[in-house]
Design a protein that fits this description.
Shape of chain B: flat
Strand content of chain A: 15-25%
Mean pLDDT of chain A: 89
Distance between the termini of chain A: 38 Å
Radius of gyration of chain B: 24 Å
Number of strands of chain B: 2
Largest sheet of chain A: 6 strands, mixed
Helix content of chain A: 25-40%
Number of helices of chain B: 9
Mean pLDDT of chain B: 86
Low-confidence stretches of chain B: 1-12
Distance between the termini of chain B: 56 Å
Largest interface: A-B, 73 and 51 residues
Shape of chain A: globular
Oligomer: heterodimer
Radius of gyration of chain A: 24 Å
Strand order of the largest sheet of chain B: 1-2
Chain lengths: 493, 261
């Protein structure tokens, strides 16, 4: 595998007093970083969100930008060269599976990096095949990239980086946005790749446990962007476990614990559905729900988890229960305690009527942001309900405090970190105090701290008589809330 | 590996012909017919095309679906000319601005045939164009800047994501309590939100492309050769022949009218 003239040997990474400040920001994302990674080392890079982990990886990949994009200090090199000059000998895999697919066919996508490096055609296709085989992506070369699952797309991105035969492989939360099966797929692919190529690797991940066997060193960045700990994985976790857990890292044995609360005495049904078949877009039903229609009961003080493999219709069911999508067949009924004067069919309620009845939190927070500050975002719902301005302010302040967003009240929602966006999107829906809360993958990509804050909030809402419906892949989430499970079956082929 | 490339190129009919040749062929016919205004050249071209179109490799279902707009647009264009075309010869009907005359009827027929003769081959040839192959051709054969061509190709892929984004944005607005607003205001809000999201997606995609060495100083190689061989030349020759026969027929019958006189 590692032969031929264009193979980059395992690379060495050096940072001496290195720092970076994004243009227009006052604080440095990273400051005075001293780090040496030897050729062939596999480093797990940990730290709280905002510690500058992604910034460091982007800088090493040479995609951080030039002088217009920020200020740098100190020295950062890959094999003694400026990373921008070493592009091509460094491979980068990012978090979001969708934004890394470049071409419309699998083979072409993997070939893209090699083309840019000027690899001759015959060798190029040999590399493409080899890379796909190594990441275990067994699909034809002309398979449409659109048809891949999240885990497959991440393996495709890995293959694309790999075909360039980099001496340094950088993985920025490669499994944050994919389901649990996908996590293992990607982890195993990375393990196989490193074992075969011997490349140096730096991996950023919150979910430590899955990666412990792949890495041989853990480096921890502090919240101020400096080096906090460095050493053998299990030794570092043992010595700094509490600090890491407090920083949001999922440290084995130190997972967050959620205290269960008593629920309400009365648990009337709020939402029910019978003979329910789903359609993601009008007129094209999900076959599995047509052949065996669903029965759903959502009651006050209870949590219903919608589970099942990708494509089984979890999101569609959540949005249908949320009164946003019309059922293909059957009906969803808002029972009297929920309907409270509005149409008993959620899909026929007015948009404003939904606010106090059924609140829906989307999987992608960006889809539901409507204003330019976090404060406005939280105030929008209460204002739409024409609540007294004093009441609106009170609710907003309470939520900002509760969600740990006080300091970011005037920040643009789009500029927040992933965890902050998620909390804000939940808060914006809670601001109108809906009786039923519908969430789509609320814990995807969350660090342990955000996860715990979110689950605690939901447990509290449940205990005072709200109902929670969540489409989820996260068994921890289901267990922590003592949720009833509605398992959807795979799509009938 | 060339086997895969070859397999991809061994499709039936015109499907696997280089898109650059398809554009050239469609242009040859369109430009020739655009410079004339008579019935004979357009009808001869159309007749020859209708004989050849079944060999283009498009199924009949796909053919009618893709060309539906053309079959609607052509008679409409003809009708417009019937009613409002410059009157000449005997006038049959006059009503407000409408004047149906011998001249306008003649011109309408020529227009209808001309729209069909230009649009049908263009639609059929383009229907079978693969965006990746087109980008390969534009960059390798016409030597358009690779940065521009591949950037556009990657952006094209985002269109599918934009459709999903649009749907999710619309549902999210209903969930946030602002779905009752007027249609126009809602559309403007949605369009702006989609714009913001698309810029973010575009930026992320650009980073991913850069990380794979795109835009570097190294001379690029091409995974898929863009070939211009006998079939491509043949297609353009056929298009040229259709144009030539059409013009000749018009000239010989004394019907040739140069446009824009």
């Amino acid at each position: 595998m590692r032969s031929g003239p264009d193979v980059s040997p395992p690379a060495a990474v050096r940072a001496r007093g290195w720092g970076w400040r994004h243009a227009g920001r006052r604080a440095w994302a990273l400051l005075d970083l001293d780090l040496a990674v030897e050729p062939g080392e596999r480093v797990l890079l940990l730290g709280p969100s905002g510690a500058g982990k992604s910034t460091l990886l982007a800088a090493l990949a040479g995609v951080l930008g030039g002088d217009d994009d920020g200020d740098s200090s100190g020295i950062l090199t890959v094999d003694g060269r400026d990373p921008r000059a070493a592009r091509g000998s460094v491979g980068l895999v990012l978090q979001d599976p969708d934004s890394q697919v470049i071409m419309s066919r699998v083979g072409d996508d993997v070939a893209f990096g090699c083309e840019n490096l000027g690899v001759p055609r015959d060798e190029l296709w040999a590399r493409v095949r080899e890379a796909l085989e190594l990441v275990g992506l067994d699909v034809p070369l002309d398979h449409p990239t659109e048809a891949l699952s999240g885990g497959q797309k991440q393996r495709l991105a890995l293959a694309g980086a790999l075909a360039m035969r980099p001496g340094l492989l950088l993985l920025d939360e490669p499994t944050a946005n994919i389901d649990p099966d996908g996590v293992l797929e990607v982890r195993d692919a990375v393990g196989a790749v490193l074992a075969r190529t011997g490349a140096t690797a730096i991996i950023v991940e919150h979910r430590v446990e899955a990666w412990l066997d792949v890495v041989d060193r853990v480096v921890v960045l502090g919240s101020d962007g400096t080096l906090m700990a460095d050493g053998e994985p299990r030794a570092v976790l043992a010595a700094h476990g509490d600090a890491l857990a407090a920083a949001g890292v999922w440290v084995p044995g130190r997972e967050p614990r959620i205290a269960r609360r008593d629920g309400p005495a009365e648990r009337p049904a709020l939402l029910t559905a019978e003979g329910l078949s789903l359609a993601r877009v009008p007129g094209s039903p999900l076959a599995a729900t047509v052949s065996s229609p669903l029965e759903v009961r959502v009651a006050a003080g209870e949590v219903l988890a919608l589970t099942g493999p990708n494509g089984s219709g979890k999101t569609t069911l959540a949005l249908t229960l949320g009164g946003l999508l019309a059922p293909f067949a059957g009906e969803v009924r808002a029972e009297p305690p929920l309907a409270a004067g509005a149409d008993p069919h959620p899909i026929r309620m007015r948009s404003r009527e939904l606010l106090t009845r059924i609140g829906t939190v989307f999987q992608t927070p960006e889809h539901q942001f409507l204003t330019s500050t976090a404060r406005e975002e939280l105030a929008l719902g209460p204002r739409t309900l024409r609540l007294d301005p004093a009441v609106v302010d009170q609710r907003v302040d309470e939520l900002l405090d509760r969600l740990g967003l006080d300091a970011l009240a005037d920040a643009n929602p789009f500029t927040l970190s992933g965890g902050q966006k998620r909390r804000l999107s939940v808060g914006a829906v809670l601001a109108t105090r809906p009786r039923v809360l519908v969430l789509d993958e609320p814990t995807f990509g969350q660090d342990a701290v955000t996860w715990a804050a979110l689950v605690e909030l939901l447990e509290e809402l449940r205990s005072v008589g709200s109902a929670v419906v969540a489409a989820t892949h996260d068994p921890r989430f289901v267990a922590a809330l003592g949720a009833d499970e509605l398992a959807l079956s795979a799509v009938l082929a | 590996m060339t086997a895969v490339v070859a397999a991809r190129r061994s499709g039936l009919g015109a499907i696997s012909i280089n898109p650059v040749a398809k554009i050239a062929a469609a242009l040859v016919i369109a430009l020739t017919l655009a410079f004339s205004l008579d019935v004979v050249s357009a009808s001869v071209a159309l007749a020859l095309e209708l004989v050849l179109l079944p060999f283009a490799g498009l199924s009949w279902g796909a053919f009618w679906r893709r060309t539906a707009a053309v079959w609607i647009a052509a008679p409409l264009a003809g009708l417009t000319v019937v009613l409002y075309g410059r009157p000449s010869g005997q006038v049959f009907v006059t009503w407000w601005f409408v004047q149906v005359s011998e001249g306008s009827l003649h011109l309408a027929l020529a227009t209808l045939l001309r729209v069909l003769a230009i649009a049908l081959p263009a639609v059929v040839l383009f229907a079978t164009v693969d965006a990746t192959a087109l980008a390969d051709g534009l960059a390798q054969l016409l030597h358009l800047p690779a940065r521009f061509v591949l950037g556009a190709l990657a952006a094209l892929r985002l269109l599918g994501l934009m459709r999903d984004d649009w749907r999710a944005l619309a549902l999210a607005r209903r969930a946030r309590g602002v779905g009752d607003r007027g249609r126009l205001r809602r559309f403007a809000g949605l369009a702006f939100a989609l714009f913001v999201l698309s810029i973010r997606r575009g930026t992320a995609l650009a980073t991913a492309m850069e990380a794979r060495g795109f835009g570097g100083s190294t001379a690029r190689s091409w995974a898929r050769p863009s070939r211009f061989g006998a079939r491509e030349v043949l297609l353009i020759v056929v298009a040229g022949a259709i144009a030539a026969v059409a013009v000749t027929a018009a000239v010989v019958t004394g019907q040739w009218v140069l446009g824009g006189r």
